[in-house]
Amino acid sequence: MPRVLPRRRWGEGPWPWLAAGSVALSLLALGALLLLLAGRGLGHFWPAPVALVELENGHRLAGEAVKEEPPGEEASGTRGRERLYRTANRDLDAGSWTWVALEAIADVSHPSELVVLERRRWGDFIGRLVAVERDGRALGEGASAWPVLQARLDALQALRDEQARLRRESILPLAARLAAGPDAEASRELALANARRRALQAEADRDRLVLESVDGRRLEQPLAEVVRAWRPNAMSPLEKLAAWGQGVWRFLSEGPRAANTAGGVWPAIFGTVLMVLLMSVLVTPFGVLAAVYLNEVAHQGRLTRLVRIAVRNLAGVPSIVYGVFGLGVFVHGIGGSLDGWFFEEALPSPTFGTGGLLWASLTLALLTLPVVIVATEEGLARIPDHQREGALALGATRLEMLARVVLPMAAPAMLTGVILAVARAAGEVAPLMLVGVAKLAPQVPVDGDFPFLHLDRKFMHLGYHIFDTAFHGGDVQAALPLVYATALLLVLVILVLNLTAIFLRHHLKVRHGALPRV
């Protein structure tokens, strides 16, 4: 009689070790990715030391050392090791980056008087501060110019805050009143507000800086164009840490500048979170109702199986196809009809017949609908039949059984579908390029004017911001740290949204009890 060997179980042999190794490798890869994004992105806000480089030929330059290239990278193999410096001063040198051969360097020092200015135009300036002038009269020269500059920057920030408050509280509301119809009082108040704004701007334009590059070239700089100034070589570690924290906060709270290569990403953060929340509100009821119908109501025949196959196939359709569908059906079809019915006086300028927050949210809801349907239906299938039969035996109607027994027990599976939908929708870029995302939209689509949430407005998105900054910027090297920082921020936003849904799912599991495995 042949000997029967016992079947080897999954817990025996190398399989558990291979599974654990795969999980560990995945976690290591994820950790390496986050470390790369954090190091390259958050390190951008640390005040880097500025080096004064003297070359063998007598030329001098000042800049921040960025990286070094090993020798022999050209085909000839004759090039030596080189170092890349961010020298800024684009208005003086027609460029912000300089490669320097290491063998050509005679001396490198870090003088404490070197100043870095962040400007609204022409990028940063690196050099020396000669004087601070007001109406042509010197307020400070030489060593005394630096404290005067700090005081004038504080006064300039107060003027900017007053201008922003005036625009937000007076100019924009009065302009909206005039747009609704003739109003003599609003017109008079708007003229006074504009006069006050011009007076504030004239006050800010009175100050000028006299700057000098390290090779002796002088430059007059309007102080109104300067955002901030610092001397990194004279800063202590605590001062640098404080400056780093302020830089991170500005990145999170301000809008972009200089073609997205400077400033912050607050409009993109707000637009991403708002779009994902709207998408979740739109997709969840439709996905849950579709899953309930397929699993609880529809006859389980060939047609239902074909519908399930179609739903699963829709999950694999490329996202750009959904973008084309949203552009044709939502934007041009429904949006164009809404403009013809309700906004005819605004034509030919479209209101809903162009990309906006509503159409982007609907397109991504359609994109993620199969994910929610499949996850919810799998959760419904795991609920034992005796739960349904017990509710019906106690006198509950079929609707009461679904609403009070089945759906609460399937809520964790529904939230699993929402989590997967959020993770996919927050990172999608291709469909948004067709249905509402903008390169620059500094005004968020929520304000104090009725209806408060403006679904017709375009918005910024972190994923598209990364794409635009990395590939469409004028200075890719300068934008690269912001790309890493924005990518890290996008990962963190998705993580926060997912953790919120995960905690809610855990709460529902505890409340309704764990389902038996089938």
UniProtKB/TrEMBL annotation:
<keyword id="KW-1133">Transmembrane helix</keyword>
<keyword id="KW-1003">Cell membrane</keyword>
<feature type="transmembrane region" description="Helical">
    <location>
        <begin position="265"/>
        <end position="294"/>
    </location>
</feature>
<dbReference type="InterPro" id="IPR035906">
    <property type="entry name" value="MetI-like_sf"/>
</dbReference>
<dbReference type="GO" id="GO:0005315">
    <property type="term" value="F:phosphate transmembrane transporter activity"/>
</dbReference>
<keyword id="KW-0472">Membrane</keyword>
<dbReference type="InterPro" id="IPR005672">
    <property type="entry name" value="Phosphate_PstA"/>
</dbReference>
<feature type="coiled-coil region">
    <location>
        <begin position="149"/>
        <end position="212"/>
    </location>
</feature>
<keyword id="KW-0175">Coiled coil</keyword>
<feature type="domain" description="ABC transmembrane type-1">
    <location>
        <begin position="269"/>
        <end position="501"/>
    </location>
</feature>
<feature type="transmembrane region" description="Helical">
    <location>
        <begin position="482"/>
        <end position="504"/>
    </location>
</feature>
<feature type="transmembrane region" description="Helical">
    <location>
        <begin position="314"/>
        <end position="338"/>
    </location>
</feature>
<dbReference type="GO" id="GO:0005886">
    <property type="term" value="C:plasma membrane"/>
</dbReference>
<protein>
    <recommendedName>
        <fullName>Phosphate transport system permease protein PstA</fullName>
    </recommendedName>
</protein>
<keyword id="KW-0812">Transmembrane</keyword>
<comment type="similarity">
    <text>Belongs to the binding-protein-dependent transport system permease family. CysTW subfamily.</text>
</comment>
<dbReference type="InterPro" id="IPR000515">
    <property type="entry name" value="MetI-like"/>
</dbReference>
<keyword id="KW-0813">Transport</keyword>
<feature type="transmembrane region" description="Helical">
    <location>
        <begin position="401"/>
        <end position="423"/>
    </location>
</feature>
<dbReference type="Pfam" id="PF00528">
    <property type="entry name" value="BPD_transp_1"/>
</dbReference>
<feature type="transmembrane region" description="Helical">
    <location>
        <begin position="358"/>
        <end position="380"/>
    </location>
</feature>
<dbReference type="GO" id="GO:0035435">
    <property type="term" value="P:phosphate ion transmembrane transport"/>
</dbReference>
